[in-house]
Write a structure and sequence with these properties.
Shape: globular
Strand content: 15-25%
CATH architecture of the largest domain: 3-Layer(aba) Sandwich
CATH class of the largest domain: Alpha Beta
CATH topology of the largest domain: Rossmann fold
Distance between the termini: 18 Å
Low-confidence stretches: none
Strand order of the largest sheet: 1-7-8-15-14-11
Oligomer: single chain
Number of helices: 8
Order of helices and strands: EEEHEEEHEEEEHHHEHEHEEHE
Number of strands: 15
Number of domains: 2
Structural class: alpha+beta
Length: about 260
C-alpha cells in the first residue's frame, strides 16, 4: 500500500502513570512518532496483530502528551504517501516523509473538499481557494513537529517562464500564515513535457538533470510543496536531487493525491 491515513489510535494513561500508545500500520507510524518526538522515553515498539503496534511512554508531561494527541489527530486527517511499486525501481528513501491533504476525487465525478479547492485555484486562478489551501497546508505544518521546524519551505519548481504556478503562490501565502521566511533558489534549467502521458521510465528520464540549485543546503531540512501528487516521480526526483546536494532531510506536502498513479482520475 502506497497511500493511507491513520484510521484509529489509542492513547491512554495506565495505572503506573505511563502512557499506552497503540495504532495500526506500525512500521510507518512508529517511525513518525520517534522522529517527531525524539525526547520521548518508551519501552520500544511492540507488535500486536495485523500490523498493529504499541508502546508505553514514560515520564511525559501533560503538555507533551497533548502535542502527541494533536499529531495523531492530524495523521487521521491527512494522507501518507509512500513509494509505489512503479517507483521502487528508481528510488529508495530520498523522501523522508510525504503527505497530502486528501485525494482529489471521492469518485470519478465528485471532488473532495481539498480537490475542489485545488481545481479552482489551479485552473480558475481563484484567489480565495488558494488562500484556503495555503491555510490548510500551514495548519499541517504547525501541527507536525518535523515540518514545523524545517529550514526551508519551497515550491516544486514549474517550467521556466510559466506565468502562473500554484505551488509558488501557496508557499508565499504559507509564509504569511506561519510568519516565517519561505522559498529556496531552486528551479528548472529547461522545460519538461506533461508527465501524465509518459511511462514511469520516461517520467524519470524526462526529469533527469533538469533541476538547478543556487544556494547551499548542506545539512539542511527542506519541505517541498506541490498542488498535485500523481505518480510521485517529480517529488521523489527532486528529493533525490536535494540530497545529492547535501540536504539532510526532505519532506513533501501536496494539496491532493490523484486516485491512480498514472493520471488524475
Amino acid at each position: 500500500m502506497s497511500r493511507y491515513r491513520l484510521n484509529w489510535y489509542e492513547l491512554e494513561e495506565s495505572d503506573s502513570g505511563d502512557w499506552l500508545v497503540k495504532f495500526p500500520l506500525g512500521d510507518t507510524y512508529s517511525k513518525f512518532i520517534d522522529q517527531a518526538f525524539p525526547e520521548f522515553s518508551h519501552i520500544g515498539w511492540r507488535p500486536s496483530s495485523k500490523g498493529v503496534c504499541y508502546t508505553y511512554i514514560k515520564g511525559a508531561s501533560s503538555q507533551k502528551i497533548k502535542r502527541l494527541r494533536d499529531f495523531l489527530d492530524l495523521l487521521k486527517q491527512i494522507l501518507v504517501l509512500r513509494l509505489n511499486k512503479n517507483l521502487e525501481a528508481y528510488f529508495e528513501d530520498e523522501l523522508d516523509q510525504c503527505f497530502a491533504l486528501d485525494f482529489n476525487l471521492e469518485d470519478p465525478e465528485t471532488y473532495t473538499g481539498a480537490g475542489s479547492l485545488e481545481y479552482q485555484a489551479k485552473y480558475n486562478e481563484d484567489r480565495k481557494s488558494a488562500d484556503k489551501l495555503a491555510e490548510l497546508l500551514a495548519t499541517v505544518c504547525s501541527l507536525h513537529p518535523n515540518l514545523r521546524n524545517v529550514d526551508h519551505i519551497t515550491a516544486v519548481p514549474g517550467n521556466p517562464g510559466k506565468s502562473f504556478h500554484l505551488p509558488d503562490i501557496l508557499v508565499k501565502k504559507m509564509g504569511k500564515h506561519l510568519e516565517r521566511d519561505v522559498g529556496l533558489n531552486l528551479g528548472k534549467t529547461k522545460k519538461t513535457p506533461q508527465l501524465k502521458n509518459l511511462s514511469f521510465a520516461d517520467k524519470v528520464k524526462a526529469l533527469k538533470g533538469v533541476y538547478s540549485l543556487g544556494e547551499d543546503v548542506q545539512d539542511q531540512t527542506i519541505l517541498l510543496i506541490d498542488d498535485l501528487y500523481q505518480s510521485g516521480t517529480t517529488m521523489w526526483t527532486l528529493a533525490k536531487f536535494l540530497k545529492e546536494n547535501g540536504a539532510e532531510s526532505v519532506y513533501g506536502l501536496a494539496c491532493v493525491k490523484s486516485w491512480r498513479d498514472s493520471d488524475n482520475i
